[in-house]
Write a structure and sequence with these properties.
- This protein has eight helices and three strands.
- By secondary structure, it is mostly helical.
- It has two domains: 36 residues; 112 residues, Beta-carbonic Anhydrase, Chain A.
- Helix 5 crosses helix 6.
Length: 151
């Protein structure tokens, strides 16, 4: 029951957006559709539902090119035949859109970082992708641990 109420609330919100925000800003959306996007900023943010980069920055439509993933990670450069969503977004932002600024937006209480810090707990969940994805942060964790132990 709660699930269908959540979907209904989102559908109602979309209807309100169309009737209010979209109609008041129709010229902006029409211009974005005709000219395409030309954001100067890219945000790499966590996919955590509690953190909305548009909301916390006050950005409007077309201002931020955004990619979101678990723990806002940027994997190492590795051209091969595998799928690389974050890398593809970065490449398109830099080469295709000529963004001028890239912001990696972290946040508190990140589940991905919790999984990195406690891999045993994360593996107990039985995920197919999270541990592998979080391995992208092993070198950063090692650097933090080395700095923490040196201090």
């Amino acid at each position: 029951m709660a699930s269908s109420q959540s979907i209904q609330r989102l559908l109602t919100g979309f209807g309100n957006f169309r009737r209010n925000y979209y109609l008041k800003n129709q010229a902006l959306f029409h211009g974005l559709a005709l000219r395409g996007q030309a954001p100067k900023v890219m945000v790499i943010g966590c996919c955590d539902a509690r953190v909305d980069p548009m909301l916390i920055t006050g950005a409007g439509p077309g201002e931020i090119f955004m990619v979101r993933n678990v723990a806002n990670l940027v994997p190492p450069y590795a051209p091969d035949t595998h799928s690389h969503g974050t890398s593809a977004a970065l490449e398109f932002a830099v080469k295709g859109l000529a963004v001028e600024h890239i912001i990696v937006l972290g946040h508190a209480a990140c589940g991905g970082i919790r999984a990195l810090l406690n891999e045993a707990e994360a593996s107990a969940i039985g995920t197919d992708f999270v541990a592998s994805w979080m391995s992208n942060a092993h070198s950063a964790l090692a650097a933090v641990n080395a700095h923490t132990h040196d201090s």
